[in-house]
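Entry:
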Amino acid sequence: MIRKATVDDVGAIQKLVNGHAQKGEMLPRSIGDICDNIRDFFIYEKDGEIIGCCALHVTWVDLAEVRSLAVASDFQRIGVGTALLDACIEDAIRLSIKKLFALTYKPAFFEKKGFHTIDKSELPHKVWVACVNCIKFPDCDEIAVVKELYDTDKASVCHVEKVMMTNGFVKNGN
C-alpha cells in the first residue's frame, strides 16, 4: 500500500535510503534532511513494513524533482519502485507541475516511464543550490533525466480554469 509519510517513518526512510547509499546506488540522507522534507515522501508499506520510499520535491512553479527512490532488496523488480514513481507523477500532475527531473544512477528505470536523459547543465540554476551540501560536489556523477508532463499552454489553461472555478467565476461543465 502506498501512503504519504509521517514523522514516524523518518528512521525507516533513512535506513532504506542510506542502505542503498552505502552500496553507491544513491546519495545518503540525514535525519534532519528527511524531517525537513517529510511532506515530500511517499511510502510503500507491506504487512506493516516500509519496503520502499520516494519523494517529490517541488523546486519551482513548473518543476519538481523525484528524489530518494529506494526499494528494499527483497522487494525489487516486482513493481514497488514503479508504483512509487507513479505516485510522484500523479502528485506532480495534481500540483500542475509541467516537468519532472531526477538525478540518478539508474536512468533506464526512469526511461521506462517516459523520462529521457539530458545534460545536467540544461537544468535550472535553482536545482543546484542544494548540491553545495552534497558529498560529491562539485564532481556529481549522477545522470539527469527529465519528463514533460504536459505542454506550457495546456498547463496555463488548466491553471486559469482551476482558479476561476475555485473563485466561483465558472461552474463545472459551463
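The CA atoms of residues 161 and 167 lie 10 Å apart.
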